[in-house]
Amino acid sequence: MLKNIKPFIYLLVLCGIVLSLLSCNRKSDPKTLKIGLSMDTLKEERWQKDRDIFMATVKSMGGEIIVQAAQGDDATQISQCENLITQGVDVLVIIPHNGEAMALAVKKAHEAGIPVLAYDRLIMNCDLDIYISFDNVKVGELQATEIVKLVPEGNYVYIGGAPTDNNALLFRQGAMNILQPLIKRGDINLVFDQFSDDWSASVAQKHMENALTKNDNNIDAVIAANDATAGGAVQALSEQGLVGKVPISGQDADIAGCMRIVEGTQSMTVYKSISAIATESAKVAMIMAEGRVVLTNNTVNNNKIDVPSLLLTPVAVTKDNMKEIVIKDGYHKLEDVYKNVPKNQWQN
């Protein structure tokens, strides 16, 4: 019997150590994961919605969120990213103003051991960890397809977004996928084709004014890359008495764009569910912060690597499906979209 006492004592001591360690672990609070969100701007309604949903999702998952917005200034955005890195974020999420310039922020984050998620806009020429957006070539294809349905031939104007935003290049690529065969065949004449710095409505308005002047107002259709540029183009058309007579595309389903669609001054927009991208990006950021593997459905080349990507599906929205898509999703309220339309013309 005495022979068995010593091993028994050792077992008791070992169990005591294990229980003590477990007890210590239970007493110590788990680390709160911290996500840094660096935003290009909060000037547009769309980005305010992204921020709010992203923040709410991170908080609902027990994380901490720090948000900074650069208001369209590259140097400010890089400085803000450095500040987020210094604050010890576990993951840096960047909505870049300039996809080329923000490669430096990715480099600095990686030097600090922090992974980077590019949100909606690709960051170029760097070892980006993951990219979440919509199929942006598809966005341009949807825009062109809807306008071609309305105007299968004639003089076309293309008003793009910011040349510093890789998405603007993809939107144009998609539009040209649809337009180029028709241009080659002679059905469509592309009489004006310009990007708009910083997605500015006022710049887009000047582009539209120039296009109208150069072509003696003989413009049959306009493909504008988003609702802000569409708004600028609509203003220029309005001054020439052409508003509502020239089909025009948009994107983002901004409240102003949706109102123009139901009022008949804009033909379509492309809805990219902000709830979907903001929620999904927040979830992925938290997974990355925990060190777990993220499942993706695509890759997108950023001129250096094929970036693991999660691409969501955009939807074309016209007057006919406004309620079914935008309002049903809770993005805007029926009474807000149809504010300037007689109630007997509201969708049932």
How would you sum up this structure in a few lines?
This protein has 348 residues and is of the alpha/beta class. It is built from twelve helices and twelve strands.
Question: How would you describe the overall organization of this protein?
Answer:
The structure is a single chain. With 348 residues, the chain is α/β, with parallel strands linked by helices. It has 2 domains: 34-128 and 273-312, 3-Layer(aba) Sandwich (Rossmann fold), CATH 3.40.50; 136-272 and 318-345, Response regulator (Rossmann fold, 3-Layer(aba) Sandwich). Helices cover 46% and strands 17% of the residues. The chain is built from 12 helices and 12 strands. The chain has helices at residues 2-27, 45-60, 74-86, 103-111, 136-150, 166-185, 201-214, 227-239, 255-263, 274-289, 322-327, 334-337; strands at 34-39, 64-69, 91-95, 116-119, 130-134, 154-159, 188-194, 221-224, 269-271, 298-301, 306-312, 315-317. It has a 7-stranded mixed sheet, sandwiched between helices. The chain has a 3-stranded parallel sheet with strand order 7-6-8, sandwiched between helices. The protein is globular. The N and C termini lie far apart (88 Å).
